[in-house]
Amino acid sequence: MPGADGHQERTHAYARVGSRGWGGPGLLGAARLDAGPVEVSRSLGPVQVLHDAPLAPLTSFRLGGPATRLVTAVTDAEVIAAVREADDSGTPLLVIGGGSNLVIGDKGFDGTALRIATRGVELRGTTLELAAGEVWTDAVARTVEAGLAGIECLAGIPGSAGATPIQNVGAYGQEVSSTITEVIAYDRRAGETVTLTNEECAFSYRHSRFKADPERYVVLRVRFELEDAGGLSAPVKYAEAARALGVEPGDRVPLPAARETVLKLRAGKGMVLDAEDHDTWSAGSFFTNPILTDEQFAAFHARVRERLGDGVEPPAYPAGEGRTKTSAAWLIDRAGFTKGYGTGPARISTKHTLALTNRGAATTEDLLALAREVVAGVREAFGITLVNEPVTVGVSL
Question: 104, 65 in Cβ contact below 8 A?
């Protein structure tokens, strides 16, 4: 979901597609799964299996057709068994976590959809381990209650814990890559579980090893190292959050205040799920913020001056040597697609230009038609091609 500059702030849908697509006891009694081979039954046994199962209710868009087969796994062993069964039979596999960043075609998914519903929270000192199916917003709340800093500004982000490393989820000055120490995943290529260190995850802006190699890994558990700062937050980095808190960037504030402020900021942009608010029937940020080379940014700057006048400066954020990030939300708005744009069942959010929404009766094709219109308009106005953030299943822009 976007912040003031349109940063993606939702957990990834935790959805991967393909015949090999990804795809001591805890506080909730979760079993630990360490690196190395795991022997599990190839039979799904008592796992819940539904046929011709609706997928739209499993997504925040509430869009998409049914899956040929839907499997719900509540343990790591069940996840692995379902993945192996699909791999062994050559069946296309769609892995679903929170469904908050997922666009499924109206025809649905011809294969097995695997819903990861594992649970488990283990907190030892400042070390946190979450099962992939844990609800991310609940996990953030628990760390704040425990007085631990590091992910408090990621409050309110819909989706599952296992999705966070895929996208390197970030919001309001924090990214999970700053606190993740290890990711435990099932390696479909090797046929075993592996533990990847932070460095091996190859995190970058809204990217990771898992996203780069989408048909290899299924995340099972994520480990974090948080900070005990005496009940205070990590240094507040994001200017909008600092202003709302009445502090300077770099200051620390009580953890509950940081979390509550972020939740209020997100709610004001329609970025906290609410079944009664169609502005939240979305995937949050539908487009990523473009990162441009110096040459590309210079050309873009010239287009801005030509279109909007010499006094207009586009948003620009350092993104590494020779690279600048600009705001997708700004581009969309300045290209003429303002809040509430559209007359059909799929429209731009009335609260944030970066969110495309289902007003209640949309189809996936309605949504994609709006997305294509926005992409074409921004390209014509500024010479930049926006890239969609949500995972698409059976469709594309």
Answer: yes
285 is catalytic: yes
Q: Is 9 a catalytic residue?
A: no
Compute the distance between CA of residue 84 and CA of residue 276 in angstroms, rounded to an integer.
Answer: 39
AA identity, residue 312? V
Strand partners, 72: 48, 115
Identify the three-state secondary structure at position 201: helix
Set 160, 208, 285, 327: catalytic member? 285
Q: Which residue has the tokens 């090797």?
A: 190
The pLDDT value recorded for residue 275 is 84
pTM, rounded to two decimals: 0.84
Q: 165 forms bridges with which residues in the sheet? A: none
Give per-residue burial for 245-268: e unless 16+ CB within 10 Å, then b.
bebeeeebbbbebbbbbbbebbbe
Whether 286 and 353 have beta carbons less than 8 Å apart is answered as no
DSSP for 181-194 reads EEEEEEETTTTEEE
The residue annotated as part of the active site, out of 16, 206, 223, 259, is 206
Does the structure show a pLDDT above 70 at 19? Answer: no
Q: Are 75 and 96 in contact (CB under 8 A)?
A: no
Structure confidence at residue 14 (pLDDT): 46
Nearest to 180 by CA among 191, 194, 169, 193: 169
Cβ atoms of residues 159 and 138 within 8 Å: no
Question: And the tokens for 8?
Answer: 């993606």
At residue 206 the predicted structure's pLDDT band, cuts being 50, 70 and 90, is confident
How far is it, in rounded angstroms, from Cα 37 to Cα 55?
32
User: What is the spatial distance between Cα 69 and Cα 109, in angstroms, rounded to a whole number?
Assistant: 9
Residue of 66, 139, 43 whose CA lies nearest to 98: 139
Q: Where is pLDDT greater, at 29 or 142?
A: 142
> Is position 225 annotated as part of the catalytic site?
no
